[in-house]
Automatic annotation (TrEMBL):
The keyword Metal-binding applies. One of its GO terms (molecular function) is 8-oxo-7,8-dihydrodeoxyguanosine triphosphate pyrophosphatase activity. Residues 16-146 form the Nudix hydrolase domain. It comes from Novosphingobium fluoreni. Its cofactor is Mg(2+). It is an enzyme of class 3 (hydrolase). One of its GO terms (biological process) is DNA replication. Pfam families: NUDIX (PF00293). This is 8-oxo-dGTP diphosphatase. The lineage of its organism: Bacteria, Pseudomonadati, Pseudomonadota, Alphaproteobacteria, Sphingomonadales.
Amino acid sequence: MKTPLSSCEAAEIRPPTVMVAAVSLLNAEGKVLLQQRPEADAHGGLWEFPGGKLESGESFEAALVREIAEELDLIVRPENLTPVTFATGAAGNAGRSITILLFCCRIWDGEPKPLAAAQLAWMEPAMIGTLAMPPLDYPLAERLSQILQSGFI
Ligand SMILES: Nc1nc2c([nH]c(=O)n2[C@@H]2O[C@H](COP(=O)(O)OP(=O)(O)OP(=O)(O)O)[C@@H](O)[C@H]2O)c(=O)[nH]1
C-alpha cells in the first residue's frame, strides 16, 4: 500500500503556483496605465500592468485593492473590477509556475502616483505590446486590446 505524501513532500514535488492579480486602469480617453519596474527589482526596467502577488487566503480582487493602494495610491473597489483574461507560465528558475489574472477598471478614486514604480505611462491599448515587458504581459496586452476593440468590456 502506498504511503500518502505529507504536505511537505507533495510541495517538493509540485512547487506552489505564484498567483498574481493585475489591472488595466482605463481612463476616459481609452488609455491604459502601465508602470515600469525599478531597475533593482526582478524584471527591472520592464513595463507591466499594476498589481502583485496574492497573500495567503486573499482573493484576486482583494489583492488588487491592496496592491493598487500600495503601488499607485488609488482606491479601487472590488465591484469595479471586471475580469478580462489570464496568462500562465514559468516563474523564475525555481520550477514554479505563475498565473496572472488581468482585470479592467474604469472607476477609481485619486490620481495615480508611482509609489513603487520607476515611472507610469498611459498607453493606447494597441501600443502596449511595443513596450519591453515580462513575458506574460504580452499575451495579456494582446487579449486586452482585442477585447477592448470588440467593445465587449
Ligand atoms: N507581470 C509579470 N510578472 C511576472 C512575470 N513572470 C514572473 O515571474 N513575474 C513575477 O511575478 C511577480 C509579480 O508580483 P509583484 O509585482 O507583487 O512582485 P514584487 O516582487 O514586486 O513584489 P514583492 O516585493 O511583494 O515580492 C514579480 O516577482 C515578477 O517578477 C510576467 O511575465 N509578468
